[in-house]
Amino acid sequence: MFEAILLTVITAATPLVIAALGELVTERAGVLNLGVEGMMIMGAVCAFAATQMTGSPYIGIVAGIVGGGLFSLLFGFLTLTLVANQVATGLALTILGLGISGQLGESFVGQPGIKLQPIVIPLLSDIPFFGRVLFAQDLTFYLSIALVIGINWFLFKSRRGLKLRAIGDNHGSAHALGINVIRTRYLAVLFGGACAGLAGAQLSLVYTPQWVENMSAGRGWIALALVVFASWRPWRVLAGGYLFGAVTIGQLHAQAFGIGIPSQVLSALPYVATIVVLIIISHNRRTTLINTPASLGKAFVPDR
Amino acid sequence: MKKLIIALAASAALLGGFSTGAQAQEKKKVCFIYVGSKTDGGWTQAHDRGRIELEKALGDKIETPFLESVPEGPDAERAIERMARSGCAIVYTTSFGFMDATVKVAAKFPDVKFEHATGFKAGPNLATYNSRFYEGRYIQGQIAAKMSKKGVAGYIASFPIPEVVMGINAFELGAKSVNPDFKLKVVWANTWFDPGKEADAAKALVDQGVDILTQHTDTTAPMQVAAERGIFAFGQASDMIAAGPKTQLTAIVDTWGAYYIKRTKALLDGSWKSEQIWDGLKDGILTMAPYTNMPDDVKAMAEETEAKIKSGELHPFTGPINKQDGSEWLKAGEKAEDGVLLGMNFYIQGVDDKLPK
């Protein structure tokens, strides 16, 4: 029973974690891309279409990553090269993504999907209790964990990561030091888009192997909130994603179990939990300021 | 390049002129407002199937423009008004949430006819139409009670509105007519449309031991979960057999086409009247998808019940029925009035859930 709940939580939390990690890197470079929802749904439709046409969900995963990544380059071109407003462009990207994906996916509606099968790791998966939960998952779960570790190392232990954070904190100074701000930001946006695309692929290949218009149903926005929730720290994204997933699934189980709490209250719980944690985190203003990229959302035009 | 643009603009103008000019004179416009996308696989798609049927039947006399994904709220009024202004003879607004907007626009355009689906406010030029979905739910309940080994079914509900509560009660009544101890677990997803959450709700119910699933949400995600876990399920609004060829027992299929054709014919010959219509299985406004994945005796029972409902011999809400707390609602032989059903805000005995208020 408990194992079953954990498995459901993992499936629900994985797309949130992956999309939020991508956005975290983008925001650490000082770019606020509100188009996560749009990139995610593009990833979902590309992944589903490629899987249906080739029969291989792994090609679908790649297609999702490429789809989300390419779509984010549109955002990059508008905000980094043409210096358009990031908030407005991000919102437009979401609306555009929802529209285009609906158009692209029209012929795939109602087709039964092909599910990405779990990769069972021998020996480790035989560990009682945790073995099946942690080592008999599909590729996207392993990738999400690898991304947490990798991004944490990249941002805080590598030279390139230091440069990326410097750009996010003060793009003027970084530019003066000879760091190529625009190029790094393009790469950060591309990475964010690729992660959102992967998260979308998880939706249409693992979570619910089917395509329906607007199937991301707001998960991109939750991923955006998770980044702030995690105060731009990869491990906290993981924790936040699982907390959100656990409360969401927990409330459904509570309902099925017949606990006499109104379902509206239970449905609001994940959001209430998020707000409570946000209040606790932001209580200490100094740590919040240290982690917030100071140039977030500000346009950069090299003066010379 | 410039030449190309001019050519395009000219041809666009020609096309536009053609469709609004000569043709519109002969053909009446029968217009539709959809709340979702016409390929949502559920509610809106069912209405669009109806529209396509209508066009097939009367395509030489009418055209059927539609607006999709119109949000419920202030935008709806604008969209409906735009339709009315564009020369529609009749406008079908196909979601409960369009009710007040439709009422307002109908008052402004007395010469245009309006029909609002599932609402309860009518006017001189505004009719309402609805489908007795609960008749199908009752049949599903009977099948569930026969097919379930554990005697517990799971119900994925959307919002606690009368329509949904009525469905839950009808399902439980059907089940109890076969197995008086049948239990129904209800999970409120608080959404019409979120494949992920619907799947999560389905998984939670299966993990808690139900072996039959039914849903009042819009996507096939619960059907997929049921297929994966090897239990049975019922489809909703559309035939969902493709998502669960070995899983779906039957589905309530919304078949608005016959209704749209009937009403549009009335409009064309001038006999259209404002009415409040609540049609059922016998009128063909809903049909049951083929009874599959069940033994012959269960199938025979389902078909018999369907026939009895169609002939009027059986009304699912016939007493004796007690409310959830055990107090009496309907005496033996007493039938529920339509008005009570349309405002239903209580559970009957046997539903294992607390109704959100």
Automatic annotation (TrEMBL), chain B:
Domain ABC transporter substrate-binding protein PnrA-like: 27-309
Keywords associated with the record: Signal, Sugar transport, Transport
InterPro entries: ABC-Purine-Binding (IPR052910), PnrA-like (IPR003760)
GO CC term, one of those recorded: plasma membrane
Extent of the signal sequence: 1-24
Protein name: Simple sugar transport system substrate-binding protein
Organism the protein comes from: Rhizobium soli
